[in-house]
Request: fold
Amino acid sequence: MAIYDPIADTLLEVEQPKKYVTSWAIRVEWDNGETEDILDIPDDVAMTVDGWLTEVEEQQFEFNGEGI
Reply:
């Protein structure tokens, strides 16, 4: 939804929808220059990364002025 000022006939701000991480992987670059996506992540590592990504989502949401 956009915030519009009819008197100035201008668009003041465009509200951005909240973004959510839907998937992630670990991308590595080997010393020979090749890259590889590692998708099979152990559960204990995945839980830690998932928790961190949730915090990133919340920070982005707060940064965009929308609060929780």
